[in-house]
Write a structure and sequence with these properties.
The structure holds two protein chains of two kinds. By secondary structure, chain A is of the alpha/beta class. Chain A has four domains: 7-216; 235-369, Fumarate Reductase Iron-sulfur Protein, Chain B, domain 2; 387-529, Rossmann fold (3-Layer(aba) Sandwich), CATH 3.40.50; 533-653, Rossmann fold (3-Layer(aba) Sandwich), CATH 3.40.50. Helix content of chain A is 50%, strand content 6%. The longest helix of chain A has 28 residues, at 3-30. In chain B, the strands form seven sheets. Chain B has an eight-stranded parallel beta barrel with strand order 3-4-5-8-9-10-11-12, surrounded by seven helices. In chain B, α9 packs across α21. The chains are: A alpha/beta, B alpha/beta.
Chain lengths: 663, 679
């Protein structure tokens, strides 16, 4: 037994006790939240506070951490190695060193060699942490306490290493030298250890225990079971308070989620609003939410990148104080900048649910305060009175198809049985540009002999816009009305070209009793082509890049069918720098086009820049919002074409002798 | 994308008939009728618009319901017997096959026709007042005439319905029989059909009532009428509103198709078919005013040349359907292009009025800037890709060269276009300098934009030389080098300047100018106008019987109006025989072509228009090197076959437009289209 070793073990015990105290303080703050709740894949909420759920969460923790979290962390291999070394070495070395109190082990050189190895690994991890931040800290990483982390890590793990080495080396070095080695190590470790433990309260070390707790009590457990789990939680409209005004309005497990943030900044890198210079930075937002749970809270400690073009706020709060407003933590423009694209959620290694938080905050602003951005209010008003965002007659939704055969399901003879597909037209049907896409789709359905029908004047808005803008009451009314309409008709599947409608109908109507098989037109056309119901010609050598709609790719996981379909057209398909589930938003979701929060650039311009960079002549889209946003980009740029339009060209090319269609 | 486009693309339902959008073409007389029937050419012309996405196309302007309203004068259609019905059926099938609706205009022309044609029956009207436009003096109708014509209208309506047409309108505009009864400027009757407005409206009411009875209440019948005759003794705006209200209230009409003005004489005719000197949509206020008073849908045509104007008219509620008749002659696919987001590709009507003028000078409607219109059987509106791609060099970026480059590029050929000037457009640039003819510049503007879009290698400011052309190693060389002014053959012609010199500003005449014209086109008339506006005292002399004799009825009166207003002395039937200087002035000798009497003028300038002579130096030097000696196979051109030298080693050489022989814009475009579509 070496004296420094024993002292080190005791130091760890003391640090653990101090850490426990700080954790307890934080847990007390969490308790200001409302009852912990879990959200099912379709947006139903259930209580999380039961022994079996807690145990299930605890049991699932290792797998959630080692598989799900590391799946995200591993996208940055440097960060993954860094974390494995630093966290693994630190925890492993400390636990082992604690075991040094057991005399047999404490006397073993081999034991101390293992401890030394663990701390050496941790030191290497700490070095990587420092290396990443020095000499120049990348913009996405936070400074302040976070910048001191490598120092504490180095001191603690280096100290631990010295102590362990003092236990390994006795035959090789003079006793006195080793003893001083050991004491020096202990002093270093004590300094670094205290620094690290104090970072549990407000610094980077908080993520360790809050992250673990978050994984145990994650509000969307379905995400760990292979579900996309992206439907918003249905709001109880009879609740005393609608949406979240204060930290206390969030369920405990959501507050834990805010604390889990390690400020790695992956969300801000992914956020389209941030890129466009709008006042939203998901990292800062989560930090503001986390800071606000303390009494007399301020946002002063935050040392990451700010909200771009930040609107001035007081930056103060508390568990029962408002979160949003110029006199609070978060400016309303920050909330309304979000496109609900979920890129931040997709990138977050701590599995934080930013969009849920934003929508909860919006719900309070909209339903309780009526405090919407100027241009976002009229569409909601129109939805309330006319079931349509611009107050246009519902019957005019089929105007785009004048001259085409568009069978109404209400006129369908009963003896024909259920329609093969019910075509949900969506809001895009009113738009001239998108009407062209729908004409192409309808033409394809007719050519393929698909037995389809539309609701026509009975189709109301699906409620997506209302829901994302926080008007849950209007969403629920529209959902129930549409579900009642759909219940009167017989069909096998719903087909739509609008991923927003698809998400609402497939995932979000379930909480209100509407269960449908919903297929996106790209998947459906792919089926038609695969089964030979559509014969495709080749479109020549044109180069195309596919822009994934957020509500199709990230929200619904459908990234293969559109690509498969494009590949059938004989085009050269190029991928953008960001694609698939990590694709970048067009700027059209979440009501952002109507909220219209000023920034420096337009999101679609940025996205079109990425498309142009591929050298493609065509950006293939699969969503009316994407189509509208990208068509709005001016100047020299690739053509925007919905996949349905390209498929129709290919079907028509199949009839031509020379396939020079796009040449 | 244009503003309010969605307003145009909304369907309109009239009595169960759903028209797919708000864009239509009104009934007009393109001169394509054959034996009084709408046959192949007529049907294909309208089918092209249906293919191009139009909602409703109306044909048969002034289709005759009775044998004393002859169909012959404008090669029109006779609905006076059942033999037309199978043609209607075939026609309707063709148009319906492309999703559009088809209607016809029925009329009795009354006095607005000729007695010395077809059946040689006397013309009839409300009263025996001569119509200046047709130079016809009619007989006042008696009760038997009235009864007979009413029955003819009813029978004709039945034939339309049997023929599968979606509806019909009667013409009570432009001085046809029904509005001859309405208008106090014609109707001097003292019986129950004359006098107060109520009596003057009676004949039309009886016509429509009989038609209703013949076809039932569910068949669409409309009426074309004026919203204001715009003459002192004619129908006032208030009377027109009263007529529209009365007819609509009685349920006699399902739509009203409103025009401004009338057409009883030359200038009225020109105003009712506004040319490029008018603003766009000059009479939109008239349908708008009537729409406020009636419940039925309102249609309107009159120089709505662009979709943006049409969309505004519909979106703001002035009309329910916007008729873009001449706009469709320029581009029958304009709705399709709008729907496909290709509105930049629309060939916009410039308002040259060539289509209508052609009916009076030439006999069939053709578009100044689209050689395929009216030739759908042989000329494509959409150019197909060639099977084999060639290298084509085009010399000259006037209308002929631009069209050749455009068509070749559409065929997939690799095209190099040389133009020695720094801007494209050729002679059109000069013509467009003449006052209200400025809109002509739209013709090369569209062509050039297309040529750019199709990736033609354009070399502006680059004179083509033999070496430069051969360096391209071409398969085909097309010379579109245009022409240069012909100074004529009068003795002393070295003392004259050309209309080009005046319009380009190369010479700036002052004082007294004699302008001598041997072409009879727009050129001399518009140059005379330009000179007079600069303060010159101008005499415009011509060998022809009248000034601007080759210009048709929608443009010639405007020229004459302007020349009269400016005090230009107009001297027809004169030949310029000699020019010689005297002091610092010129003496011009003129010979009266009828009497041979000679006259002299003392002037400061003699300006002449003898047209152009081809610029053919480069052509002559290249022809011996070419595989075809520069010869065009005319038989192949007519047969729609590739030229017989295609595929031989070396290059074939052709010439188009004024480089071939000085003619006009349409001729240049037609030369190029029919040559290049088969290259």
């Amino acid at each position: 037994m070496i004296p420094a070793g024993t002292a080190f073990s005791l130091l760890i015990l003391a640090l653990a006790a101090l850490a426990a105290g700080l954790v307890a303080r934080r847990v007390r703050l969490w308790k200001s939240g409302s009852e912990a709740r879990l959200v099912s894949a379709v947006g139903r909420t259930i209580s999380a506070v039961s022994a079996d759920k807690l145990i299930a969460g605890l049991k699932a923790l290792p797998r959630r951490y080692l598989v799900d979290v590391h799946h995200v962390v591993g996208r940055d291999p440097y960060a993954a190695r860094m974390h494995a070394l630093a966290a693994g070495g630190l925890l492993g070395g400390s636990l082992l060193a604690l075991a040094g109190l057991i005399p047999v082990l404490g006397m073993s050189r081999l034991f101390w060699a293992v401890v030394a190895l663990a701390f050496a690994a941790a030191l290497a991890g700490g070095f990587m942490v420092g290396r990443r931040r020095l000499p120049e800290k990348p913009a996405r990483l936070s400074g302040g306490r976070f910048q001191r982390l490598p120092l504490y890590l180095a001191a603690y793990t280096g100290g631990g290493l010295l102590v362990a080495l003092a236990g390994v080396l006795p035959p090789l070095a003079p006793q006195a030298l080793l003893a001083s080695f050991g004491w020096l190590g202990l002093a270093l470790a004590a300094g670094g250890g205290i620094g690290l433990v104090l970072q549990i309260d407000r610094g980077p070390m908080r993520h360790a225990f809050a992250g673990a707790a978050h994984l145990v009590l994650h509000p969307r457990p379905g995400r760990f079971e292979g579900e996309r789990a992206t439907a918003l939680a249905a709001l109880d409209l009879d609740a005393p308070r609608l949406g979240a005004a204060t930290p206390a309005d969030f369920p405990v497990n959501r507050l834990i989620g805010f604390d889990a943030c390690i400020q790695c900044g992956r969300c801000e890198t992914a956020c389209p609003a941030f890129a466009a210079g709008q006042p939203l930075n998901p990292k800062r937002l989560i930090q503001d939410l986390a800071a606000a749970i303390e009494p007399n809270a301020t946002n002063a400690a935050y040392a990451g990148s700010p909200y771009p073009n930040a609107r001035p706020v007081a930056g103060v709060g508390g568990p029962a104080l408002p979160l949003v407003g110029a006199g609070a933590m978060i400016h309303p423009d920050t909330l309304w900048s979000c496109t609900t694209c979920r890129a931040c959620v997709e990138e977050c290694p701590m599995m934080i649910e930013h969009v849920d938080a934003i929508v909860d905050l919006r719900r309070y602003q909209t339903l309780e305060l009526g405090a919407l951005p100027l241009k976002a209010a009229p569409p909601l008003m129109e939805l309330r009175y006319a079931d349509e965002t611009a107050g246009r007659p519902l019957a005019a939704r089929t105007d785009f198809a004048a001259g085409l055969t568009l069978p109404l399901i209400s006129a369908r003879p009963a003896e024909k049985g259920p329609a093969e597909v019910l075509l949900w037209l969506g809001e895009g049907a009113y738009e001239l540009r998108y009407g062209r896409t729908l004409r192409a789709l309808v033409t394809l359905l007719l050519k393929a002999g698909v037995d389809f029908a539309v609701l026509g004047p009975e189709e109301r808005d699906c409620g997506d816009l209302a829901r994302r803008l926080g008007d849950e009451a209007t969403f629920q009314r529209l959902a129930r009305a549409n579900i009642a309409t759909l219940a009167r008709y017989s069909f096998t599947r719903i087909l739509t070209a609008d991923p927003h409608a698809l998400h609402a109908l497939r995932n979000e109507y379930r909480a209100f009793g509407g269960e449908y098989e919903v297929v996106h037109h790209t998947a459906f056309l792919d089926e038609l082509a695969a089964s030979g119901r559509l014969t495709l010609g080749a479109l020549g050598q044109a180069r195309v890049t596919y822009h994934d709609p957020c509500y199709l790719g990230r929200y619904n996981g459908e990234i293969d069918a559109p690509r498969r379909l494009l590949d059938r057209l004989g085009l050269e398909r190029l991928e953008m720098e960001r694609s698939g589930k990590r694709s970048m938003c067009c700027g059209g979701g979440g009501g952002a086009p109507v909220s219209d929060i000023e920034g420096e650039r337009r999101i679609p311009d940025i996205r079109m820049g990425q498309a142009t960079a591929t050298g493609a002549a065509i950006v293939a889209v699969a969503c009316p919002q994407c189509s509208a946003m990208l068509e709005g980009v001016t100047g020299e740029r690739p053509e925007v074409a919905d996949i349905a339009e390209l498929v129709l060209m290919a079907v028509e090319a199949a009839k031509l002798p020379a396939a020079q269609v796009l040449a | 994308m244009i503003a309010n486009a969605e307003a145009l693309l909304k369907p309109l339902t009239i009595k169960g008939l759903t028209i797919r959008n708000r864009v239509m073409s009104t009934s007009h007389a393109p001169g394509y009728g054959k034996d009084g029937k709408p046959q192949e050419r007529y049907q294909l012309y309208h089918m092209e618009k249906a293919k191009g996405g139009i909602g409703l196309t109306m044909f048969g302007g002034s289709s005759s319901v009775a044998i004393d309203s002859p169909a012959a004068p404008w090669a029109q259609i006779s609905v006076a017997d059942d033999s037309v019905i199978p043609y209607f059926q075939q026609f309707a099938d063709r148009v319906h096959g492309h999703g559009a609706k088809l209607m016809i205009q029925l009329t009795h022309m009354g006095r607005r026709t000729k007695w010395d044609t077809e059946n040689w029956f006397p013309t009839i009207s409300a009263s025996a007042r001569r119509e200046p436009a047709s130079r016809t003096v009619p007989r006042a109708m008696d009760k038997n005439d009235i009864r007979r014509v009413i029955n003819s209208f009813a029978d004709a309506a039945r034939r339309c319905k049997q023929g599968g047409l979606d509806g019909c309108e009667i013409s009570a505009a432009h001085g046809h029989l029904v509005d001859q009864f309405w208008s106090p400027s014609i109707n001097e009757r003292t019986d129950e059909y004359g006098g107060g407005l109520e009596n003057r409206m009676r004949f039309g009411i009886e016509v429509l009532s009989a038609m209703r009875e013949a076809v039932g209440d569910d068949y669409v019948i409309g009426m074309r009428m004026s919203g204001d005759e715009l003459i002192a003794d004619g129908l006032s705006h208030e009377e027109c509103v009263a007529i529209a209200s009365e007819y609509a209230k009685r349920g006699l009409v399902d739509f009203l198709n409103i025009v401004g003005g009338q057409a009883r004489d030359h200038i009225a005719h020109a105003i009712s078919l506004p040319n490029m000197s008018f603003p766009v949509a000059p009479f939109l206020y008239l349908p708008s005013a009537i729409k406020r008073e009636v419940e039925v849908p309102i249609f309107h045509a009159q120089r709505v040349t662009d979709l943006a104007t049409g969309a505004r008219a519909v979106a703001e509620g002035h009309v329910d359907m916007i008729a873009m008749t001449r706009a469709h002659i320029a581009d029958p696919h304009l709705v399709k292009k709008l729907m496909e987001g290709r509105d930049d590709d629309i060939r916009q009507c410039v308002g040259a009025g060539y289509c209508i003028d052609r009916i009076y000078v030439g006999g069939d409607a053709l578009c100044l800037q689209n050689a395929a219109t009216g030739r759908e059987a042989t000329m494509p509106h959409v150019i197909e890709k060639a099977n084999e791609f060639r290298k084509v060099v085009v010399v000259g970026a006037g209308p002929g060269g631009l069209e050749a480059a455009r068509v070749c590029a559409e065929r997939g050929h690799s095209v190099v276009l040389f133009e020695k000037d720094s801007v494209p457009g050729g002679q059109v640039n000069i013509a467009a300098k003449a006052g209200w003819r400025e809109a002509l510049s739209g013709i090369p503007r569209w062509l050039f934009a297309q040529v750019q879009k199709k990736g033609v290698d354009i070399r502006l400011g680059t004179e083509a030389t033999e070496a430069a052309i051969l360096a391209e190693n071409p398969d085909v060389v097309i010379m579109a080098t245009g022409g240069l002014p012909n100074a004529g053959h009068a003795k002393g012609h070295e003392h004259v300047v050309s209309t080009w010199d005046v319009l380009t500003g190369k010479v700036e005449p002052t004082g007294t100018v004699l302008l001598y014209d041997e072409i009879g086109g727009h050129n001399a008339a518009s140059t005379a106008e330009a000179l007079a506006k600069k303060g010159c005292l101008v005499e415009l002399a011509t060998h022809d019987l009248q000034i601007a004799q080759e210009v048709g009825t929608t443009n010639q009166p405007i020229h004459l109006r302007e020349l009269y207003k400016l005090g230009v002395v107009m001297t027809p039937n004169m030949e310029l025989i000699e020019i010689y200087p005297e002091g610092n002035r010129l003496i011009a000798a003129l010979r009266n072509t009828m009497t041979d009497a000679e006259e002299e003028r003392v002037v400061d300038r003699v300006v002449v228009d003898y047209g152009t002579l081809p610029v053919e130096g480069l052509f002559q030097s290249l022809r011996t090197r070419s595989v075809n000696d520069g010869e065009t196979d005319l038989d192949a051109l007519i047969a729609g076959q590739p030229q017989r030298w295609s595929g031989q080693p070396g290059f074939a050489l052709y010439r188009v437009g004024d480089a071939w022989t000085g003619r006009n814009i349409h001729a240049a475009l037609y030369d190029s289209l029919r040559l290049c579509k088969d290259l």
